[in-house]
Amino acid sequence: MxxxxxxxxxxxxxxxxxxxxxxxxxxxxxxFAQADGSAYIEHGNTKVLAAVYGPHDIQGSKGRxxxxxxxxxxxxxxxxxxxxxxxxxxxxxxxxxxxxxxxxKQTFDGAILTHLYPHSQIDIYVEVLQSDGGNYCASVNAATxxxxxxxxxxxxxxxxxxxxxxxxxxxxxINYTEESSATPQLIVSIxxxxxxxxxxxxxxxxxxxxxxxxxxxxxxxCSDIYHILDRAVKxxxxxxxxxxxxxx
Amino acid sequence: MSSCTRxxxxxxxxxxxxxxxxxxxxxxFYTFVNEFHKDTYVExxxxxxxxxxxxxxxxxxxxxxxxxxxxxxxxxxxxxxxKVVLLTNDTDNRNKAKAEGIMAYTVHEYxxxxxxxxxxxxxxxxxxSKPRGLKxxxxxxxxxxxxxxxxxxxxxxVASREEMVFIQGHKNLNRGxxxxxxxxxxxxxxxxxxxxxxxxxxxxxxxxxxxxxxxAIVKTKAAKGPKLxxxxxxxxxxxxxxxxxxxxxxxxxxxxxxxxxxPAERRIPKIRIExxxxxxxxxxxxxxxxxxxxxxxxxxxxHYVRKLGAIGDKDTENEVLLLEHDIPHSTFSxxxxxxxxxxxxxxxxxxxxxxxxxxxxxxxxxxxxxCTDIDDALHAFKLDNGNYEVGxxxxxxxxxxxxxxxxxxxxxxxxxxxxxxxxRIDMVPELLSSNLCSLRGNEDRFAMTVIWEMTPxxxxxxxxxxxxxxxxxxxxxxxxxQMRIDDPTLTDDVTKSLRILNSLAKILKQGRxxxxxxxxxxxxxxxxxxxxxxxxxxxxxxxxxxxxxxVEEFMLLANISVAEKILxxxxxxxxxxxHPAPPVSNFDPLVTxxxxxxxxxxxxxxxxxxDSLELAHIPSNPYFNTMLRILTTRCMMQAVYFCTGxxxxxxxxxxxxxxxxxxxxxxxxxxxxxxxxxxxxxVSIGADASYPELLDKNKTQHCSYNLNFxxxxxxxxxxxxxxxxxQLFFKNRxxxxxGYILFVRKNAIQILIPKFGLEGTVYLVEQKGAxxxxxxxxxxxxxxxxxxxxxxxxxxxxxxxxxxxxxxQKLRLQLVRPVIxxxxxxxxxxxxxAPPTKKIRxx
Amino acid sequence: xxxxxxxxxxxxxxxxVSNEDPKHIVTPGEVITADSGFMRGHGTxxxxxxxxxxxxxxxxxxxxxxxVKPVKSRYNGEVGDVVIGRILQVGQRxxxxxxxxxxxxxxMLSAVNLPxxxxxxxxxxxxxxxxxxxxxxxxxxxxxxxxxxxxxxSLHTRSLKYGKLSQGTLVHVAPSLVKxxxxxxxxxxxGASIILGNNGYVWICPTVNEDTDHTGGxxxxxxxxxxxxxxVVARLHNCVxxxxxxxxxxxxxxxxxxxxxxxxxxxxxx
Lengths: 248, 843, 270
What we know:
- The complex is a heterotrimer of chains A (248), B (843) and C (270).
- With 248 residues, chain A is of the alpha+beta class.
- Chain A has helices spanning 60-64, 95-109, 135-149, 176-180, 208-246, and strands at 25-29, 37-43, 46-57, 72-79, 120-130, 159-166, 169-172, 185-191, 196-203.
- Chain A is built from five helices and nine strands.
- A five-stranded mixed beta sheet of chain A has the order 1-2-3-5-4.
- Chain C has 270 residues and is α+β, with helices and mostly antiparallel strands.
- Chain C has two domains: 25-70, CATH 2.40.50.100; 82-264, CATH 2.40.50.140.
- Helices cover 15% and strands 30% of the residues of chain C.
- Chain C has three helices and 17 strands.
- At the A-C interface, strand 3 and helix 5 of A face loops of C.
């Protein structure tokens, strides 16, 4: 294609999607035996693995400082060194990962029924295996699945989706190319049933008049993702629970 | 077979053009995005070059399309007669396609098979090599600028070169027209030429074959001056054709249908049209569009569109003027008028709550006489701490023109109010421009206010901005204001504030000049219009009083303060105005001329230039300095609006004003740029909400292109209007007038007549006869009969209208003094028809 | 070497039980009922008079009580449950025991039988000897004695059948797969004992003949185990894993059947 045309005249994005389309999402739950819950998700080429341990007794120094009448959520976001085009120096601990870790914690603090588990800790480990934009979103969605897999009570799913705004058109679920061109980027996490926002982040400038349009498409993306995840969870449940009852 | 489908796998070279074609819906082009279709996507194979892969993708798509058409036809139960033709100039691809059973041709083969292909093939020939040549650097791309003086010469401004490329002769011009984007090829240095320094008009109709001879004549006549980089046009990349106003040239054969049309714009060639109404159109201004310019034709071909009115009629001529400068001048539409506030307009409590009430302050406005769109008003008083408070109040037009409304779109398109001598083309409807927005005396009006606290040395201590409501105590003219200042018996608030303002303005001006601001001159005139016939009856140069400069100083200061504020608040999307420093080479003619008179011009910085101009005085020729300043003005670049996010901060500078940043804030009634600036300012002081377009730097930049264009056109139109009125003025007059030589050309001298602000040409060489004059190229003089004419020399010329061609009347200048026998004419006897001989001399 | 790989997709979908009533499966945030006449059980929460699920699983209804049972979760203790645990920490008059619950369980010094079955107040001497009784990493069987208000469990081993486990293998399965029965201690006819902890930990060891050996004590039996016994233990281990993999309930009969079914496969000599 000539130049970097993020949205062609025919209305296609650089990866062939329409502005209001998600990337293909594939997911699997229970991929680890050792973890209490785990999940793997692909948003197009973004691939994320999440593992949940707990609730268990508080461990480590971070947890000691936490409030004791609710569960302490411990997150760790890391990106595999091979996940990006250029090999990463270190997988975690850099500013970006720390920020992301913090975002994840914030997000799930709002969704997990933490008051049920005083003096406990829930670990969420997220590893990005391949990064092609929407790392946060894929991480949140993967972690949600892992938490469900671990049987940890939550108010609702947490679904995250990003959106951008190019040529007067809001774009759903942006990929790396779209992310890295100087366009606004809105990241939203919602509780899809109530449509409550649990996390919103905005990068670059966008005029407030257009915010609602972009927010709408991001929320629409979240609820689309919810339906995909919910189907996957139900399938997983059917598969897992049929024999359970067979001999009661 | 009328539809054409483009596949998305394309060669990037033509991408943009092909895409442009596809957006024209009536041409039946469609795009099929094969890259994103599951049946036509192809994966690049190992070892396959991306080019080969693309070729394969195209073939796959073509095959799929053929199959698809087949299936569609079957579904519809009809026989498929549609054939997919693949056009490619890639031999390998074509052969492979043929092997795969696709009909494949080269573009040339295909075009040849079409009816009426000759023209297409011609176009292809140019197209073929152009883009590749452009890429390889063999050809350059630029904008065609026809010479005003010589129809066989033009310049092409190429982005990558500092100086223009010179084009000479029919062959080399190759049908390029004003403003076209063209591809040019540089000529070898041995073939370079220089402008003939002749003023040449295409007078007679010539047959097409004569062009060669003409070229030869031009060549031989070419002066032996320094050779300029020259080139020839290989093709036109983009035409900038529009509608042209003009007149029909009298046909040699009465009753013929083929005629030549003479555009009003000199830089446009004559256009050949066919019409049966030639007789009816004689003496009329008409509009014509160009349809094509065939290769073998000397003139472009077009057709007649409509008639504007009789030649010489003022309304017609005004219409021509507006059309030629692309000035939107239709009456405001219903939708626009619907946006106006209802009358009687009342100020609501809500408005009051949002604004600072300054109605008790003694504010006054100072404007030219007869001004109805008063943008600005001022006030000043002494504060208790010995400092002064100075306020500039600008009509709050943005309160009435809200973003996105019809009135806003209209104003944005018009961009500026255009002032003609006898007519004003408003940017906003009159209700706003002359009433609700105009800061009239003793009426409550909304304003955007800038208030400074200044020390008596005119140093700014504090600046504040606000939306306010004001009540001007007096709407004064410059003369009235001057009178008040000068009359020591007056001690009212308004007069006192005028005196403060005046004294501060002088300090400000001094400071500005010290920083290197240029005082440039241009000849501005005022026509006295007969109240009944609306014909001009007298001409005056505009007088400048102290109060003019007083208002100007504060407007400059307000503009700069606002520019600083909005730049700080919106570093990426503020609309500012910059004036680039001209390249030093621009000053060459000025330096040469001044040198001839014994002055050295330093041009390296604005400050140097201002100082040198200040020093250049010839006691015997009081007008010399002014002329030098006029010439300096011509060396300048255009000041332009721009968006701060799109230009490097080092280029924000305003050269003429010697200000680091500058914008336009003070005339929102007549300039759209000021409305944008008002909006930005309102947002930055929290008085208004922003909207997306305001903060989008690309949109702002785009908008500023239009502002710049309209602004330039408005200027040209204004000048043309002066020219038109000058002509009307001389319709029944022949006048002897003093003037000065501005340029000496090979076959003419150009004269500036200060009284009329008029510039005209005295031809020294009759069309065929030999010249009496000898041209000295080095000293830039013309000598005849022992008299030498050189630049800046005072002369007396006789001005009259040349009626030899009834259709195309021209102003004729003839030399009266110095007397050159056989050339100069007798002075005009003083008659009653001549204007009063009182000479208004400017210093 | 030939590798046999089972992909998740190749797993046979078991439609054997499709004749049963469709189970009510819910996911977090789903409304179970808008009827306010129900009681909120585990895995649910109330909001605006509606009962929502907070975990993904099957809805179970006992009279007015509605629970959602997740497929997989940490162990939720109940008094009287038999659990297998691992000592994590020796503390002040107590041990911390990992029983795969949401908090570490506590085994008070006062809740264990002293060696020799003495019944007396625990002295400071006993406190000093705690690490000799049970050290970090030891595996014990115990019973849930009480549940603290924050959900932590207190264990006891005051029965001869509980106590330190010495030689055997621990299998870790989902707690929900262990069927609640009268007894969780089984001496299987194949020559091995199995303890099915309610917490999902399963202990398999060779059967020790003398019943008297159940001292509830802390003595480790370090006698070598015969190859035949080891093979039986290993086979049982795999049977439990296989059952768990297919999410079949674990109890003596199911394990035994599986064991018998596996007998036709021999340990390959390679």
